[in-house]
Specification:
mainly alpha; Arc Repressor Mutant, subunit A; 7 helices; about 5% strand; globular
Length: about 160
């Protein structure tokens, strides 16, 4: 396959991924949420029990400070509540409010970010390492190596 055809094929794959993520974002926007907010609501719902910000960050594969910003917006909207853990008052736990559960039930059953995480998790360790190495090269070549990595489709 000629180099131009390989690059076109790679770009088509990126376009399909971005298209799927945008479609999920539009579904979230229909609910007056960002894609990131819907992703967090879904992660809290699927946990089935209260989560700390750190636990939520692990589930959403992002860092605690990034997910905390999204959670703060959801708390402000009354969709998520922070409560002190009974066993450790230093620990805040996040739960969906009644309004959050209602809104989450109206959401699409599967969102693109979940599908992307599942696809990445299904890669062999060798393939995942190769993909990570190649994506880092691309990000670096784009001059974005030091850029923040916010949650996808979050308002900034």
């Amino acid at each position: 396959m000629p180099k131009d055809a390989r690059v076109a094929d790679l770009m088509d794959s990126f376009r399909r991924i971005v298209h799927a993520l945008r479609s999920s974002h539009r579904a979230a926007a229909y609910l007056n949420l960002t894609g990131a907010q819907l992703f967090v609501l879904t992660a809290l719902h699927e946990a089935g029990h209260p989560l700390s910000v750190s636990e939520l960050a692990v589930r959403t594969r992002t860092d605690p400070s990034t997910v905390s910003v999204v959670v703060s917006r959801l708390v402000k909207r009354g969709l998520v509540q922070r409560v002190r853990a009974a066993e450790d008052s230093r620990r805040a736990e996040l739960t969906l409010t009644r309004a959050g559960r209602t809104l989450q039930r109206k959401a699409p059953t599967t969102i693109a970010q979940e599908k992307l995480l599942e696809a990445l998790a299904s890669l062999s360790p060798r393939d995942a390492a190769a993909l990570q190495r190649l994506l880092r090269r691309i990000v670096s070549a784009m001059g974005e190596a030091e850029a923040p990595a916010p949650m996808m489709f979050d308002k900034r």
